[in-house]
Recover the amino acids of this structure.
DNA sequence: CTAAATACCTGATGGC
DNA sequence: TGCCATCAGGTATTTA
């Protein structure tokens, strides 16, 4: 599911858990890419959630002395139930359950198990990403001159470039194609060939599509769910992603699908010509 | 150092 | 109906 808008939607939907104290948990299935931090979580029993948080595509439950991260991988869902009475039956890939003293329950489901459950000491710490993460797209630190300077240093095609979390976090395969379409920039264009005007334009469109995605509750292609189980809406606003062969909404030219860095890219070869 | 390829895992879909 | 190949929101690790 999860690019920035989907993770932000999940994080916001988990807000009602703030103030609830952890009562216990069950790991129905372990054997993830990283082991579930059972000892760290056990140490939090009796302690309250103080906030919910997001950094890049990592959502977290914040405790007084650390963060429980639940990265959603490609197919993860985090569901919040207000009462342990009349809980729906456990589903096949509900792998972890958190129980709270007030009866609330959080279930982490992940069919493909590309997700990661991890603990870091200190609230609002950086997530356990393997590489140092770049700036948040909505952070004023990520401005036009910073972005342009980054662009000028690499010849990587712009589409995989903006998906690189070292450059800016949160942009995944859907929103990268959508932002480039709005900016009328070819996904194949080398990063260092963008002008200052292109950079400012693209930065604005990235922010625009991410904000619109959040407003729409994220894009549900298959797995994305809000914390209350509802699907997102923003897939209905996609202009190019998944639209291969369909007419461009601007000029009518059929949308083309190509592969870049092993990922599908969709674009209008007319509006987004080199 | 960068950049590209591969691996991780389950399930849906389409061709034959 | 079955079997095989391909593809899917991401990222950590390996290979060049």
């Amino acid at each position: 599911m999860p690019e920035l808008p989907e993770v932000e939607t999940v994080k916001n939907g988990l807000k009602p858990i703030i103030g609830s104290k952890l009562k216990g948990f069950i790991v129905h299935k372990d054997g993830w890419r990283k082991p579930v931090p059972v000892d760290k979580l056990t140490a939090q029993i009796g302690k309250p959630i103080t906030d919910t948080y997001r950094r890049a595509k990592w959502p977290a439950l914040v405790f007084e002395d650390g963060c429980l991260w639940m990265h959603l991988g490609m197919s993860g869902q985090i569901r919040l139930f207000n009462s342990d009475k009349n809980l729906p039956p456990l589903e096949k890939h509900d792998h972890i359950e958190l129980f709270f003293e007030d009866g609330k329950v959080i279930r982490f489901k992940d069919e493909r198990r590309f997700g990661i459950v991890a603990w870091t000491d200190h609230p609002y710490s950086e997530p356990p990403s393997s590489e140092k993460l770049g700036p948040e797209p909505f952070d004023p630190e990520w401005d036009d001159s910073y972005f342009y300077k980054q662009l000028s240093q690499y010849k990587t095609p712009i589409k995989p470039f903006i998906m690189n979390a070292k450059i800016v976090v949160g942009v995944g395969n859907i929103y990268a194609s959508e932002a480039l379409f709005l900016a009328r920039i070819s996904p194949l264009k080398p990063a260092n060939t963008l002008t200052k005007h292109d950079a400012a334009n693209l930065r604005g469109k990235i922010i625009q599509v991410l904000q619109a995605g959040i407003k729409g509750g994220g894009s549900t292609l298959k797995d994305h769910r809000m914390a209350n189980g509802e699907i997102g809406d923003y897939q209905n606003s996609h202009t190019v992603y998944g639209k291969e062969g369909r007419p461009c909404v601007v000029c009518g030219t059929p949308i083309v699908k190509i592969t870049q860095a092993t990922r599908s890219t969709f674009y209008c070869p007319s509006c987004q010509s080199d």
Residues 32-33, 73-75, 93, 110-114, 154, 156, 222, 261-262 of chain A lie near DNA strand B (CB under 10 Å from a C1'). The first helix of chain A runs from residue 4 to 13. The first strand of chain A starts at residue 22 and ends at 27. Helices of chain A lie at 4-13, 38-42, 144-152, 158-162, 173-183, 196-215.
